[in-house]
Design goal:
The protein has 67 residues and is an alpha+beta fold. It has 1 helix and 3 strands; from the N terminus they run βββα. The structure holds zinc ion (ZN). Zinc ion is lined by residues 3, 5-6, 8, 24, 26-27, 29.
């Protein structure tokens, strides 16, 4: 694990926070041990769209069944 700010390997884990956080000794910058990916893959985007559409259709169906 290296600091994303200065690429130093002199980092210490910050166990006080539940999320895996670490602090760089060199620049004192806090960062996450497992940073989230910058962008989702096309596969994940497609899956999210499918789920979103499914909820949308269900919502319309519910609305149509209302008296
Ligand atoms: Zn650093």
């Amino acid at each position: 694990m290296v600091c994303p700010n200065c690429q130093s390997s002199k980092v210490v884990k910050n166990g006080r926070i539940k999320v895996n956080r670490a602090i760089c000794v060199e620049c004192n910058r806090q960062f996450s041990e497992n940073p989230l990916p910058q962008s989702y893959s096309a596969e994940v985007k497609a899956l999210c769209q499918t789920i979103h559409n499914g909820i949308g259709f269900r919502g319309i169906e519910r609305a149509e069944n209302q008296p």
